[in-house]
Predict the 3D structure of the following.
Amino acid sequence: MAWALKLPLADEVIESGLVQDFDASLSGIGQELGAGAYSMSDVLALPIFKQEESSLPPESQDKLLPFQYVLCAATSPAVKLHDETLTYLNQGQSYEIRMLDNRKLGELPEINGKLVKSIFRVVFHDRRLQYTEHQQLEGWRWNRPGDRILDIDIPMSVGIIDPRANPTQLNTVEFLWDPSKRTSVFIQVHCISTEFTLRKHGGEKGVPFRVQIDTFRESESGEYTEHLHSASCQIKVFKPKGADRKQKTDREKMEKRTPHEKEKYQPSYETTILTECSPWPEVTYVPSAPSPGFNSSHSGFSLGDGSGSPSHQPDPPAPLADTLLPTWSPQEAQQWLHRNRFSTFSRLFRNFSGADLLRLTREDVIQICGPADGIRLFNALRGRVVRPRLTIYVCQESRQGTEPPRGDGDGGTFFVYHAVYLEELTAAELAEKLAQLFRVPAQHIQHIYKQGPTGIHVLVSDEMIQNFPDESCFVLDTMKAEGNDSYHIILK
């Protein structure tokens, strides 16, 4: 009987324990699925959901990015579900990128009524090529002199302000824009994906690129250095009409797949939404000098009227040296351009210091100034010295006595010779150079003689100078002319 009475008590204890365990198990569910451990915005940020963001209701978007960039080109249908979208572009064709302001009311009020700056880049998608980007771009520059990798189609673009393209960065363009106004940028990519692949027998496989956009707001110092947003997408560039053929081929391949296989691939979207990414790391966004005005081989550049601003400072005195020095300021570099007959390009290079000009490569200068003036400016920048037609060395006899000078001289005496460089090979030019050497007016040198055999004095003529051996050495003797203050010079 005792055993029968204990049975209900045991059942009650067991039941109570089960209820407590069940309650304890339920108590952790809310904590595990809380906002701190799991956020729907993280899921929405996945590439497979990025294309559907515009159709999502506002309450489901926990985090809207401040900006959104939409490339008006269809994505490939041959991309698997969890892979990043891939978009095919035609070489040199203009494609629109819409710059959209997604800020909520009261978000980022510091940019209200102000401009922001966006930097566009075409970079490598593969990490292997990113490590050798500089060498790859230099090789492309060598094979395609005067061309750019990325351009802006300015006539078709809307809302962009002060577009710029640095001639030393072929894959980068930048501009200012107002987020409160409609802004569309039409870009052109001039390199194709197969230009960066190794030549292989039986065909090539092009490398993918990335179009990346980094946007900045103005800092207290007036420079656009405060990062706001970055986004990018993956592209491949084909020869003209090649992207259309590739898109058609991918679509036909997908149509041949079974419904089960199609479920593993993303649908093709009419536009490409750039996904959020980190800012481009290898570029300093504060340039040492402002980049020149936008100028590409596909659009003209207006030099303007050249009028100065009200705050224009007076130019410093012109330097004496005629070779461009890296330590020169932009004002000194401007004067050098004027003295060397490059006034046409002075406004274009108005912010360039001597060091900035000397960093330009031959291809950069040709692209900016054209072939004729570009080659001339490049040679002037490099300070290539034109070898004189004739060089002679002279020493003044009065400084060494009657003995002819010899190297270090006898008795330890050192005789100094001066080099005289002649270009025209005329007696008048020689008289002018000797007058400069002696710091006397050229008209004070009446005649120049050369001491001949048996001590005779032979009048130096143009023909005689043209027959002087190069690097001849002469001792100069001066003799006062009769009746005036002029002198005769004798070359011994």
Summary: The CA atoms of residues 182 and 283 lie 28 Å apart. The mean pLDDT is 75.
